[in-house]
Amino acid sequence: MPDFTKGEEKDIRDTIAWAQINGDVLRSLSKPRFAFWALFTFALCLFSIGVACEVYQWRRGLGVANFDNPHVWGLYISTFIFWIGMSHSGTLLSAILHIIHADWRKPIYRFAEAMTTFSLMTAGLFVLIHLGRLWKFYYSLPYPSERMLWPNFQSPLLWDAIAIFTYLTSSILFLYVGAIPDFAICRDNATGWRKHFYSMLSLGWMGTDRQWRSFRVTYLTIACFLIPLAVSVHSIVASDFAMSQQPGWHVTSFPPYFVAGALYSGCAAIITLFIVLRYTFRFEEYMTMPILDKVGRLTFAIAMVWTYLNFVEYASVWYGDDMYAKDLLIQKATGPYSPFWWGMNFCGSVVPLLLLSKSVRGSPTAMMIVSLLLNLGMWLERWMIVAPTFSHGYYPWSMDHDQWPGFVQWGIVLGSFGWFGLLFMLFCKLVPSVSMYEVKEMVYHRTLAQRHAREA
Amino acid sequence: MSTIRILGLFDDFDAAAHSIREVRDGHFPALKMDDVTIKSPIEHPDVEELLGDRPAPIRKYTFAGSILGGVLGFLFLASSQGNFFAQHKGGKPIIPLPPDLVLTYELLILGGVYITVLGFLICAGLPARMRSDLYNIKISEDQIGVMVKSDAHTVAEIKKIFERHHALSIAEEVIE
């Protein structure tokens, strides 16, 4: 039996027929396993809980979420950062790995791109939800106002709005443009309303050389734009904290720390959804164990970068001259938030060491558990950035002001996972979650390389 | 004389490439190589060598979009800030450059991406009406199409070439 961890097994079987690729992927749009509907129902239930909590909060005010002064962000902004971080998965797999010609990304980049788009759509909701009065959102728009509410262009919060809008629309365009050839395949094989739907989305794509050439240049160009954009988005989110004077937030290394954390949580989520899709849509032929092994190695590398930056942050606070920041660090490690802070360090820095084991990387069940723990760690990281600082500020009245989030906050956080799950499941049912033309390219180029090797 | 379009379908890139080379080397007086089109499920690896350089000027759109996005973005921000005359700035500049540069950077990317996609649609001829072109659904699956537009005599010769290279099917249509 070949050992894929030594590169003996191929990322994808290169004898697979192109027609079979179409057939397998198109089947996923119509006949998923029962698990798909079970997950869809579960996501719908979570989403319903979130909606109910939001309606309750809307009617009664933010107090029901257990917000008070200084705890004004709570889980909402923690989860906002978590989802923004998750959005870096698509950029990593689609843009960065595309530019460095890592062709093993081809069977799995489409769902990672979808994750980017839906994560951003989920993150954006929290910006609205944390305001409490949703209907007053337009107050923050930049126009001369008789209410004397002026948007502050020096505030990273406004930069956030523009950066996230740019990232969201660019990601949607990147996802859409990259899927046009696959929409054409769907159009050619569909009937009924799906035929009309895919005809509209494929824009009359016929695979001419002119179209392919334009497509290749466009895809590469948008990928080049997305990489600095993704870095800037999470740097700006980091600036929301780092540009303040609050202890624990005013840290120079926050932007790279946030970017590394984003790539890390994005990678972990890719592993989770890789395994879910592989089983649900019978994608064993495309989402292969050697590819999962590579994603596991990549996740481990990024986890170590994150761990390093985490220790840099601790060291700079410990050896620095800011007694409030040092006091906060001690409080994180020993105070009421300590189980979560240690949990974050354990899940974020110790659990990824399991990825060194070949048997862990070779087991979908083990990888699923590891990826969920990594994501838990990354979510705790965001919570441990937001909550302890609010509970241990400069002023006596804000010291030891611990606060446990109310059930409304927890409900809305769960609802966000449901919302993301619903969008993702619907996407997988309507759009091929494996890029058919890219897998064909992968198979073709590998076959061609073998032929050239034989001839040489 | 009427103009005819012919589409030959081939099993693989090699057969399609051989037939295109023979068409190109046939030196048909009425045929322009710009009227030869490859239709394929993935991009043909040797398309430039077969059909010559057919540049797609998308990067010009990208450049223009980025410049427009950056300049218009900065003007939008600066004019918004300039209108907030009633705001007390406490001695700080009305149009602060460092934060505006961050926002201009984002809007530069926004303009670049949007106009790149516009350039893609223009250069790729999309959206297109499929009824106006020869097409076979096997092209999106696993077959390679070679489409040539020319007069009836040349098309008859090209049809023979396609047959010599074992075209799986050949379709024709009169376009004018």
Describe the fold and architecture:
- The complex is a heterodimer of chains A (456) and B (176).
- Chain A has 456 residues and is mostly helical.
- Chain A is built from 16 helices and no strands.
- Chain A has a single domain, classed as Formate dehydrogenase/DMSO reductase fold (Up-down Bundle).
- The longest helix of chain A has 34 residues, at 156-189.
- Chain A starts with 17 loop residues before the first helix and ends with a helix.
- The mean pLDDT of chain A is 89.
- In chain B, 48% of the residues lie in helices and 15% in strands.
- Chain B folds into two domains: 3-53 and 139-174, Alpha-Beta Plaits (2-Layer Sandwich), CATH 3.30.70; 58-86 and 93-124, no CATH class.
- Chain B starts with a strand and ends with a strand.
- Chain B has 176 residues and is an alpha+beta fold.
- Classes of the chains: A mainly alpha (456), B alpha+beta (176).
- Chains A and B meet through α1, α6, α8 and α16 of A and β2, α3 and α4 of B.
Fourth-tier CATH superfamily name of chain A: Formate dehydrogenase/DMSO reductase domain
How many beta strands in the DSSP annotation of chain A? 0
**Major sheet attributes of chain B:** 4 strands, antiparallel
Structural class of chain B: alpha+beta
At the fold tier of CATH, the topology name of the largest domain in chain B is Alpha-Beta Plaits
The radius of gyration of chain A is 23 Å
Spatial separation of the terminal alpha carbons of chain B = 9 Å
Give the strand content of chain A.
Answer: under 5%
The name of the CATH topology of chain A is: Formate dehydrogenase/DMSO reductase fold
CATH architecture of chain A, by name, is Up-down Bundle
Question: How many separate domains make up the residues of chain B?
Answer: 2
